[in-house]
Amino acid sequence: MTRVYARQDSRWQAAVPPYLGKPGNWVCNLHIAYAGDTQIELIQPVSGASMYQESLDRHCDAVQHVAYWLDDADYDAAAAHLESSGYPQIQNFRLPILRVGYYDTRRAIGVVTEIVGSTEAGHELRRNLKSGNF
Fold first, then answer.
1. The CATH classification of domain 3-131, taken from the options 3.20.20.70, 3.40.190.150, 3.40.350.10, 3.10.180.10
2. What CA–CA distances, in Å, run from 43 to 9, 26, 56, 80, 84?
3. pTM for the whole thing?
4. Average pLDDT of each block of 10 consecutive residues along the chain (134 residues)?
C-alpha cells in the first residue's frame, strides 16, 4: 500500500534556483510517498518555467526523473562525472539539509537523472518519511 507521508509547498523562489542556466522563478508542490523501499514524488508545477512543466508539456503524465541519494561529501564528484560525461545540468536548488541537481540524461536513459547530496539531517528526514515518523 502506498501512503502519502508528506506534502511540502515548495516555494524556492527566494533561493532563485536556476533553470537551464538562467535564474528561476518557478513554484511547485511536492508530494512524497513510499511504496516499499521506493520513494515516489508527485510534483505539481504551479507557476514559472521549470523542467517539471516542460516534462508535462512534452509527455503529459510520465516518469520525469530517477534519483540517487548521496552523502553531501560525494555530490561534487558525482556532478562533475555527469557533466564530463556529456550530461549538462538542467536545474538545481539547495536547502539547508540537502542540495539537488538534475542532469539531462534523457537521450541515454529516457529520463532526467537527479542527484541529491544529503547531510545527516537530510538522511534522517528521509528515514522518518519512509517510516511514517515525521
1. 3.10.180.10
2. 10, 12, 10, 26, 28
3. 0.79
4. 38 56 79 84 84 80 86 98 97 89 94 95 91 80
C-alpha cell at 124: 534522517
Query: What nine digits make up the cell of 24?
Result: 528561476
Sheet of 112-118: strand order equals 65-71, 112-118, 98-103, 89-95
Scored b (16 or more CB within 10 A) or e, 52-79 reads: bbbbbeeeeeeebbeeeebebeebeebb
One-letter amino acid of 44: Q
Instruction: Give the number of other CB atoms < 10 A from CB of residue 123.
Output: 16
The ranges assigned to domains in the chain are: 3-131
